[in-house]
TrEMBL record:
Residues 34-384 form the FAD dependent oxidoreductase domain. It comes from the Bacteria. This is Gamma-glutamylputrescine oxidase. It comes from Mesorhizobium robiniae. Keywords: Oxidoreductase. Its EC number is 1.4.3.-. InterPro entries: FAD-dep_OxRdtase, FAD/NAD-bd_sf. One of its GO terms (molecular function) is oxidoreductase activity.
Length: 428
């Protein structure tokens, strides 16, 4: 039987096309190290690479398999900048801070592509991303955004598209305009997960799958992480579990909420299809965002059905096909070869959460759907912090990230109501 992630529904097209997926043994016994990392997604694996290459003794534990969470199952889009537009960050934090945050994200993009190239990880990079308006009244904002990015933030790769150009580049007339970004692109995320784990292991990091953390404590300048079959004692700890924190660490859990997002892959559309002829990825202006792109073998990978609870839907294919048909009526009966989901971590303001949650323990997550390039880079920034330079990580630590209201008992129902209200507004 093919492997099925116990924490994410469905089997992804990524799993069937990533090639060999090595398995790592579970931890059995006690360990002592410099840094213990909890979570084997992009953040933890990247941190393990950079720490090990800098000479640290690193132990990384993952409760399931590397890539079972959002890192191995996401939409694969890199994006540009932070989750919020640079001009929105300027309004909140001022120009110099907004520019620093934008530049950090651009460095993250460069880092990811260079890391893959240097380490010969084939991530199926395809250039181009379009952001499109599903309501006419949003079009002027997109036009202004392109001008601001070029003239104020020194990023000339975003151009405005009117309705006609948008329709030509999408192969759909359902959007009113948008922007095209030639300075970014999209990747096969699970190939990056697998490749990063291999690099970490080769650098000397000790990697363990099927090893959940059952407790984290910081006492007397030391950190202890307990597991079912051993305790890890370390000088420092990185928590990189994002949406899958559960009750392991209460501060992170109060600030990062899991939401489900689901993707369908069609059969290859063939060379005559007018869907995304330029091969760009797409995200739209809905609060419950729709995101889609074509794979290297010509499939449409379409994501868009979010849920704000942790009950796995049984009908991913049906809902995804219905959303595809709204944009591409000719695909109303298209065969969906794969349907899968995963849980991403969001914060209230949709900005990343970085905080020292107890002495010598830093938690990183809450990428809010913008984590492919940021999470990999934040792993590098954490390694810089361990080496004594916390300045760049502090740019993110200092962001204003309030806890979700309602406490542990009521925050999920309150978020469900609030975000479904926004989903309703998307349709009005």
């Amino acid at each position: 039987m093919p492997y099925q992630s116990p924490i994410s529904p469905g089997r992804s097209w990524y799993e069937d096309t990533a090639g060999p997926r090595p398995e790592y043994e579970a931890l059995d016994g006690d360990r002592t190290c410099d840094v213990v990392i909890v979570g084997g997604g992009f953040t933890g694996l990247s941190a393990a690479v950079h720490l090990a290459k800098a000479g640290s003794n690193v132990v990384l534990i993952e409760a399931h398999r590397f890539g079972d969470g959002a890192s191995g199952r996401n939409g694969g889009q890199l994006g540009t900048g932070q989750r919020a537009w640079a001009e929105e960050l300027e309004a909140e934090y001022g120009f110099s801070r907004a520019k620093a945050l934008f530049d950090l994200a651009e460095e993250a993009k460069t880092h990811l592509l260079e890391f893959a190239a240097v380490n010969k990880i084939e991530i199926d990079y395809m250039p181009g991303q379009m952001s499109v308006a599903h309501k006419q009244r949003y079009v002027d904002d997109y036009k202004a955004h392109a001008e601001i990015m070029a003239n104020r933030f020194g990023y000339p790769h975003i151009t405005f598209m009117d309705a006609k150009e948008t329709a030509q580049r999408l192969g759909s007339t359902r959007y009113f305009g948008g922007t095209r970004d030639t300075g970014t692109g999209h990747i096969h995320p699970l190939k990056l997960v697998i490749g990063t784990a291999k690099v970490a292991a080769q650098a000397g990091a000790h990697l363990f799958e099927q090893t959940p953390a059952t407790g984290i404590a910081s006492l007397g300048g030391k950190v202890k992480v307990t597991t079912p079959k051993g305790t890890i004692s370390a000088e420092k700890c990185l928590i990189g579990v994002n949406a899958h924190g559960g009750t392991i660490e209460p501060v992170s859990a109060a600030h990062i909420m899991p939401i489900g997002s689901f993707i369908g892959a069609t059969v290859p559309l063939g060379p005559d299809s007018n869907v995304l002829p330029g091969g760009e990825a797409v995200d739209d202006s809905r609060f419950v965002v729709r995101y889609f792109r074509k794979s290297t073998d010509g499939r449409l990978l379409f994501g868009g059905r979010e849920i704000y609870a942790v009950n796995d839907p049984k009908d991913i294919h049906v809902h995804i096909r219905r959303q595809i048909a709204e944009l591409y009526p000719e695909l109303g009966d298209v065969e969906i070869s794969h349907g899968w989901g995963g849980y991403v971590g969001i914060t209230m303001p949709r900005k990343p959460f970085v905080r020292e949650v107890m002495p010598n323990v830093i938690s990183v997550g809450g990428y809010s759907g913008h984590g492919v390039m940021l999470s990999n880079f934040f792993g590098k920034l954490y390694a810089e912090t361990v080496a004594g330079n916390r300045d760049r990580l502090r740019l993110i630590e200092d962001l204003k990230i309030p806890a979700f209201p309602g406490g542990r008992r009521f925050r999920a129902p309150l978020l469900f109501l609030a975000l479904n209200w926004y989903a309703l507004r998307d349709r009005i």
